[in-house]
Amino acid sequence: MPSVTHDDAPLLADLMPWSVAPPRLGRGWPAAPDPAALKARWDALMKTAGPDREALFQPTRSRTGRTAVGRLPGRPGPGGTERLERASGPCPEPVRVLRAPFDEQWLIPDQRLIDAARPELWRVADERQVFVVEAATATGRGVRTRGERARGAVGTDGPGGVPGPPLLATSLLPVFRPGRVRPLYRRPGGAEPNLAPGLSGHLTARLGREAPAVDVLAWTVAVVRPGPGGLTVPLTGDAGMWDAGVEVGRRMLWLMRRDGERPRLPGGRRPYVRAPLPARPPAVRYDRAEEALCFDEGRISPVPPAAWDFEVAGARVLERWCAARTEEAEPGTLEAIRPAGWSQTWTSELLELITVLALLAELRPRQAALTDGATADPVTPAELRRAGVLPVPRPARGPASVLDAREEGPEGQLALI
Fold first, then answer.
1. Diameter of the chain by CA atoms?
2. Which residues 6+ apart lie within 8 Å of 230 measured at CB?
3. What is the rounded distance in angstroms from the CA atom of residue 410 to the CA atom of residue 7?
């Protein structure tokens, strides 16, 4: 049976052609793990005026208190488009976002606070959307932030970290760098899949069964790998191999999106709080012998080594997640406005995150069985070119024309798109 190596596999950039650079906040304070803290930060900003407000805001070349911008698409209610230096009133209701790999936080959805909000992503964000984020470079390693490099987030307490998947999937808007964002759908309501035109039809003919967009995405998440020219997705016409890959990918999507039924580890392996966490825990420490996360006297166990060693973008996911909730902020800044102590909600989220990472790690052998070696009955780039799927037409690489509702521009004017 013919086979192909990953070097002769189609590029992800061709199979999911529309991509957007990730949103760039430009300042850390509009996002936080706690929505009440965001409202308190907004109130503190509104209580200042003139140069004091501008300093608290932390202006950049892209955003100052005088910058005129429109409302983010999909935000309810009027107002919120006057220049920030004159703004007053309550905080826009925070929305849930993916602030870092596997780290769900909250964001003030106000374009005046965000250097590059990427409105085209907000226009297609809804309950049916799946955002795919490139978490690895062509060499297989992500880019660590300056703060992560400075504090050595990979750690030195045992074996090196185990890289996570090259692609992350989320139902929430991702607002972290560096990888590009590829929505599964180009329009709201799950309409117009962001796939190379004709790809699903060609795969359906090769496999002898339907290949809907969500199954193409599941296969992609399961088998995608870094290649010389970018992330590659080996495709197969072998129905048995396809089914196996789609099954693995569907479970990965369920775990990464964390929607529906909560994931659980078998009894005896579920993490629990063995000793209460302090109100202001220090940096987390992992006890490999005891398989425990330690916050001074606070302890959570069992935490499998595979969950602790799980890395994305060169940093341990659990270490980075805990640091976002324990590191001190610079006094006098809006980021210094934080909850008085560690919340029960964070504990619940941490227990679920440990579970998700452990279950994802358990899928690695099944992923390896799909990707180690050659792909059976390959669907190569050359075949896709003969079928007219490649090259991708230019319009498929840009956003669709989406304007289902009026969008308010700067100073309350109607936005023209």
1. 72
2. 11, 12, 13, 138
3. 48
Q: Who's near 98: CB < 8 A, 6+ residues apart? A: 104, 105, 131, 133, 168, 170, 172, 173, 174, 175, 176
Residue 39, amino acid: K
Asked if 223 and 245 touch (Cβ cutoff 8 Å), the reply is yes
Q: Model's pTM, two decimal places?
A: 0.90
Phi and psi dihedrals of 298, rounded to 5?
-70, 140
d(CA 317, CA 103): 8
Report residue 285: phi and psi, to 5°: -130, 140
Token code pair at residue 190 = 């799950």
Three-class SS state of 48: coil
In order, the DSSP letters of 170-195 are: ESSEE--SSS-EEESEEEGGGEEESS
Summarize pLDDT for 68-98 with one digit per residue, the tens. Answer: 999 999 877 655 789 999 999 999 999 999 9
User: What does residue 316 show for φ and ψ, rounded to 5 degrees?
Assistant: -65, 130
Mean pLDDT value across the chain: 90
Q: Side chain identity at 192, as an amino acid letter?
A: E
Tokens of 156: 């030195």
CA distance 102 to 108: 19
**256 vs 81, 98, 106, 259, 358, CA distance in Å?**
34, 11, 17, 9, 12
- Structural domain boundaries of the chain? 3-391
Q: Summarize pLDDT for 249-281 with one digit per residue, the tens.
A: 999 999 999 877 889 998 889 999 999 999 999
Count H helices and E strands in the chain, helices first.
13, 22
Pick left, alpha or beta for residue 260 (phi over 0 → left; psi -120 to 50 → alpha; otherwise beta). left
Phi and psi angles of residue 372, each rounded to the nearest 5 degrees, phi first: -80, 110
* Contact between residue 238 and residue 211 where contact means Cβ atoms under 8 Å apart: no
- The strand pair at 185-187 and 191-193 is best described as antiparallel
Distance CA 33, CA 337 (A): 12
Contact (CB, 8 A) for 232 and 9: yes
| Chain position carrying tokens 């209460």 | 276
The DSSP annotation for 261-286 comes to SPP-PPTTSS-EEEEPPPSS--S-EE
pLDDT bracket for residue 152 (50, 70, 90): very low
